[in-house]
Amino acid sequence: PLGFFDGRIVELDEKIVAMEDRGHQFGDGIYEATRIYNGKCFQLKRHLDRCVRSLRELKIPIVYTYEELEEIHYSLIQASGITNGFIYFQITRGTAPREHGFPKNVIPHLSMFIRPMQTKTELQAVGVKCFLTPDQRWLRCDIKSLNLLGNVLAKQAAHDAKCFEAVMYREDKNLITEGSSSNFFIVKDEVIWTHPINNLILKGITRTILLEDIIPSLNLTILEKAFSPEFAQKADEAFITSTSLEVMPVISLGGKIIGDGKPGKITQKLQRAYREKAHQECK
Ligand code: PMP
C-alpha cells in the first residue's frame, strides 16, 4: 500500500490531515474507488466523470484535470508495483477555521492510496447472503460523498446477522434502493430489474457497465424500476455489483432463499461477461 497527498507519494500511516480539513470535520468531500487489473486502470473515465459530477453537486471547485488524476493513478501503480489492486481517492473542500458555510479562498485537498486486491472468485462462485434493513440515509445518495454513516451502520447490521451485505429499502414506499456499498439487482421471468437512477441511489460504474455495455450485447432485458423486499425475495435470481465485487450472486435475502439457493444462470452470464470485459480492456 502507498499513498499520495499534496503532490507527493506518502506512506499510508503518515500524518497528513490537518485538524480543520473539512473532510475530517464535516465529511465535506467526495471519493471514488477504482480497480486496477494487470497494472491498468479499468474504466477510469467513467469514474472521473462521476467524480466531477459529485464535485459539481457539492460546489467544490475542480482543480485537477483528468490527465493529472490519471497520472497520479499510474504513479501509484508504478511506485507500489501493485498490478491487481484498488485505488481510493478523495477530494475535500479544503482546510479552514471550523464554520459550516463554505470558506473563501481555500483549495480542495486530494488524497489517494493504492492497495492490492484480488477478485473474490471463490465467493463469486457460491454467492453471498444479504440482510434487509431500512434505508436511513439522506436524500442525495446520488452524490458519492464522504458521509457514509447510514451505509456503515447498515453494513455492520448485516455483519452482525452473519450476512455479507445489507440491502436497503425506503420505508415510506417499501421499495429497495441498493446495497450499503453496492447496487442491487434481481432477475424474474428472465427480466433483470434494478432501481432507476435518481437521488436515492448511487449510479454505480459496474451497474452502468452492465446496463450500457453488457446487457445489450447479451440480448438480455433490463427494467429500471423499483420493487419491494417481498417481490425481491420471490425472484428467480439476485446479485449485487460494485467495483471491488464485480457481479456477486445473492443466494438469500432477509433470511429467504433466492431461487434454488445457488447463483443464477443469468447472473453467471453477466459475471463472466464482466470479467471478460475487464480482461480485454486491461491487457
Ligand atoms: N452504491 C453504493 C452506496 C456504493 O457505495 C457503491 C460502491 N462505491 C456502489 C453502489 C457501486 O458503485 P461502483 O459500481 O461504482 O463501485
Automatic annotation (TrEMBL):
Task performed by this protein: Acts on the D-isomers of alanine, leucine, aspartate, glutamate, aminobutyrate, norvaline and asparagine. The enzyme transfers an amino group from a substrate D-amino acid to the pyridoxal phosphate cofactor to form pyridoxamine and an alpha-keto acid in the first half-reaction.
Cofactor(s) needed by this chain: pyridoxal 5'-phosphate
Segments forming a coiled coil: none
A single GO BP: D-amino acid metabolic process
GO CC annotations, alphabetized: cytosol
Record keywords: Aminotransferase, Pyridoxal phosphate, Transferase
Catalytic activity, reaction form: D-alanine + 2-oxoglutarate = D-glutamate + pyruvate
PANTHER family, per the entry: AMINO-ACID AMINOTRANSFERASE (PTHR42743), D-ALANINE AMINOTRANSFERASE (PTHR42743:SF10)
Protein name according to UniProt: D-alanine aminotransferase
EC number in record: 2.6.1.21
